[in-house]
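tl;dr need the bound structure. longer version: we got a ligand (7,8-dihydro-7,7-dimethyl-6-hydroxypterin) that a collaborator sent over and nobodys looked at where it sits. i said id run it. heres the input, straight from their email, havent touched it
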Amino acid sequence: MERVYIGLGSNLADPLAQLRSALAALAALPQTSLATQSSFYASDPLGPADQPRYVNAVAALDTELAPLELLDALQRIELEQGRMRKAERWGPRTLDLDILLFGEHRLAEPRLTVPHYHMHARAFVLYPLAEIAPQLRMPDGRGLDELLAACPFEGLERLPEPA
Ligand code: ROI
C-alpha cells in the first residue's frame, strides 16, 4: 500500500463540479481509498493569461495500484470528464489529474515523472498539499515547509466549504 498525492485542476465547464466528480471517481478506484482531500482553491492561471481562473485541490490516496496503473486510471477519468488534448501548451482544461508523489518513490518513465516536475514551485499545489500533509518530505529530503517558504501564496484564494 502506498500513500499517493494527486493534484486536481480545472478551469472549464464548471470547475467545482469537475473537481467534485473527480474526487468521487478517485474514491471509487479499485484497490484504492481516498484518505483525505484539501479545500478547493481558486487560482490565477499559470501560463497564458487569457483563460479562466482555475480551481485546484490535492487529494491523498492509499493504493495498491502500480504507478502506471494509477496513471491509466487517472487519464481515463480525465477523458470521461471531457478532457480534450489541445494544441495550445498550457491552455485551459476541463480536468487535470497529476500524480504529485507516489510514496517515497522517484520515477522517470517516458509517461510519468514523480515527483511531478513543477510541483516544487507551484502555490496551487503546495498550499493545498500543506493543508492535508504539513509534515511531508520530498524523496530528496526537502520539507514541504522549505518549499512553501520560497513560494508566496500569490493569486490563490481558499474557497469556503460548500454548504
Ligand atoms: N494554472 C493554475 N492556476 N492551475 C492549474 O491547475 C494549472 N494547470 C496547468 C497550467 C496550464 C500550467 N496552468 C495552471 O496545466
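gonna send this back to them w/ a short note. The mean pLDDT is 94.
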